[in-house]
Amino acid sequence: MGTAFITGAGVRVGSAVARALGRAGYDLALHANRSVSSLESLADELRALGRDVTLYGADLSDPEAVDALGAKVRQAHPALDVVVHNAGLYERVDFAAITREQYRKMLGVNVDAPFFLTQALLPSLRAGKDPVVVHLTDIGGERAVNHYAHYSVSKAGLVMLTRALAVELAPHVRVNAISPGVVAFPEHFDEAARQAELQRVPMGREGSVEDVARTVLFLAREAPYLTGQVIALDGGRSAQL
Fold this sequence. Notes:
Layout: E1 3-6, H1 12-23, E2 27-32, H2 36-47, E3 53-57, H3 63-76, E4 82-85, H4 100-126, E5 132-136, H5 149-169, E6 174-180, H6 191-198, H7 209-221, E7 230-233
């Protein structure tokens, strides 16, 4: 089937994507930073399915670590068929209080890492049969979200990176993005915050990490003419005012 590289694969959306691709027959190169123990358990699960799984650890806010990760993955996997940039940083800070360090780290993880990892892995992607790059974006990249200015700026950058690379890397490498809505609440959300979010979702319910995983699989296997698109996987939230 091929090989897939996934960042932030240790928990939540990333682990669901890894499981879906592994069950579909892909060998896996999996990255994590703080979730290494979870990543090791996931690797054991996927190896039991007969998949070849390689693990990588790196702090994606560190440019040198990003460069080293890209070089290691490219060397170990001369051909890649799927690259999923799932790792992301998310924090609520009033605009007046955002420091340069917080801003730099946010853009480093959410924009710079996908940019330079894809650049480093381009030879491997070009060697793939029908390669696709998938970015995980957010409604905050296209609509302003109060108290998340640096996060919204980073996701807006990722949306444009999706479109820019889709144009420049065509016709062989496709680049798309998935913009999940409420599929995995942040851990700090209490029940009141969760209900407030769900009231803004026309479908009236939370999605699942498996919904994201299935969409990644669709982009990898069923959409050879789809590139440069941001798929809103949000239960209709982005369709209303």
